[in-house]
Amino acid sequence: MISRRATLAGTLGTAAAAAAGWTLDGWPTPPEPDHPRPAGPVRTVSVRAFGATGGGLRDDTAAFQAAHDSLPDGGVIVVETGRYDLRTVAITHRYVTIRLAPDAVLRRIGPIDLASRGMFMLELVGAHFTLEGGTIDLNGEGPMAIRTFGRLPNRYGEQTVAGIRAIAGPANAAIYAVRTSYVVVSGVTIQNSGETALLWRNCGHIRVEACQFANIANFGVEYSLVAADHDGATGPMPMRGDCTVADCTFEDIDDYGLGTGNGVGVGGGGGSDLGTFAGFEIVDCAFARCQRDIHIEFLSGSRIERLIIARIRSHDARQGSFGLIGVRDVIIDDYVAIDPGSAPTAALAGHYPSIYGGILSGDFDRVRLENLRILDRRDHGVRSGRQAAITAGSRECIAQDATFGAGDVGALLGIRGANPDGAWYVGRIAAVLAPDRVRLDLPAGATVRAAAYAYGGATREGLVLTHGGRVTLRAVRITAGRGSGLPGEPPAAGLRIEALTAPLQASTTTIAAPPGNTGGAAGIRSPDGGRLRMAVSMPGIEVRGFSVSRPVS
């Protein structure tokens, strides 16, 4: 495991850390492993030697389990080229490495329930488990977010989970680990889950590197830090924290709705007073078409300290790119988010969720944002109407009151009621056939006429700083803040500042209006004694292009 002090030095250097109010010497050094590697040579075995065929025609779970069980002192399990169908393999021995050939595929098969929610299951402090290479196809139905019943189709039959709707999906992860420490996942492609790709519950010393995540309905990487009586485990609790996600890509993570999914998520499961968890890094990662790219959320009495987010590239986040709630001692550096806020379901919901580039909230403190770019390049916001028609099984939608244009290709379009039980249909516009007609990438699940619809997107708020403490902006550029003119829509702004306990510190920061009509958005918006203050500029911040600058009620 790479030491956090070395990683921080490589990421930002001593000067940046000191500028944030803390030094490299203040970072905790991870304790030495409490379960040293057994003496003697490292054994290597092949799953083929235990009966696995790799032909994709039989259940190879028993062969994988037998290969693991043959290594009580640890060793390497080699998985040759081929496709292996697996249910659940329990990792109970320490220092085991599963090494997949580059073109080896592990495919998940059912039935699956909460007791077998991971292809690999761990409850092992000091596990020193490594999974590297190849592809894991979790074989889940997608997109789950269109609220069809959750299914896990595979060659061994189809399990129907009647109680599963929307993004929750079947319990289906590549790794489900609880009260586990010292795990590395490296160079693995993980795809096609109705739930989460990697789920770490009350774990520590976890490194995920050089992995690719695609078509995941809930989380790509989830760190769930919950009360001890809520994790379902009985073993000793590891030191929770010191976790890294590096050099990974995340594509289409919960991309068809506004649910709970994130590329990388860290949270307390809704619990409060859980204490402090220290040392998380998310660096050198790219995100495309995720509901939220990075989301960290803790309630009162719980928080993350010492968080590094650096060298991030994001495109088309559905709700927002990053949301940090209950964090302290944070550096965000070299972060570019392009066109966040592209989920049309926001216009169809009964309430308007936040649509943003980035948000800091929930008693945050000592946060430094440097070289941050939030750019909305679109020339119009969400457009909506009430005259959409589509036939079950069809990909062609007619909206008599629409004005589709070539620039809408690739945008999401939502139609109320065009799926079973009156649920939304959400598909991507594949082609514009006429100003009132488009071809979509997914067939509708139900026939509707004169239905409410919405398409397009806008970054309603570029950056939100609310209910927190000290924050510093340096070399921040925001080109965002657009209202779509929808009934009851919240106000829009490039920067919203609210209820900070310390003055905002800013330098070389620009808030610019996005192209086209901003829908009455303000450059900077801040509640002030019952009134709404709209500022043309603030110390260290230049505002450009917004027409709204006068104080209003």
On the 0 to 100 scale, the average pLDDT is: 83
Tally the helices.
Answer: 3
The biggest beta sheet is recorded as: 23 strands, parallel
* Helix-strand category: mainly beta
Shape: globular
Rg to the nearest angstrom? 24 Å
Helical content stands at under 10%
- Give the uncertain stretches in residue-range form: 1-29, 142-169, 549-553
Taking the alpha carbons of the first and last residues, their distance comes to 55 Å
How much of the sequence lies in strands comes to: over 45%
Give me the count of strands: 44
In short:
This protein is mainly beta. Helices cover 4% and strands 49% of the residues. It starts with a helix and ends in a 9-residue tail after the last strand.
Describe the structure in your own words.
With 553 residues, this protein is mainly beta. It is 4% helix and 49% strand. The chain is built from three helices and 44 strands. The chain has a 23-stranded parallel β-sheet that branches. Strands 5-8-13-16-19-22-24-26-28-36-39-42-43 form a 13-stranded mixed β-sheet. Strand 30 (383-390) and strand 31 form a beta hairpin. The longest helix has 9 residues, at 61-69. Keywords: Signal.
Walk me through the topology:
Elements: H1 4-11, H2 13-19, E1 43-46, E2 55-59, H3 61-69, E3 75-79, E4 82-86, E5 89-91, E6 96-100, E7 104-108, E8 118-122, E9 129-132, E10 135-137, E11 150-154, E12 157-161, E13 173-178, E14 181-186, E15 189-193, E16 196-201, E17 204-209, E18 212-216, E19 219-224, E20 241-246, E21 249-253, E22 262-267, E23 275-288, E24 292-297, E25 302-315, E26 320-325, E27 327-338, E28 356-361, E29 365-375, E30 383-390, E31 396-399, E32 412-419, E33 423-434, E34 437-440, E35 448-455, E36 461-468, E37 471-474, E38 477-479, E39 493-500, E40 505-507, E41 509-512, E42 522-528, E43 531-535, E44 541-544
Parallel strand pairs: 1-3, 2-4, 3-6, 4-7, 5-8, 6-9, 7-10, 8-13, 9-14, 10-15, 13-16, 14-17, 15-18, 16-19, 17-20, 18-21, 19-22, 20-23, 21-23, 22-24, 23-25, 24-26, 25-27, 26-28, 27-29, 28-36, 29-37, 29-38, 36-39, 37-40, 38-41, 39-42, 41-44
Antiparallel strand pairs: 11-12, 30-31, 30-35, 31-34, 32-33, 32-35, 33-34, 42-43
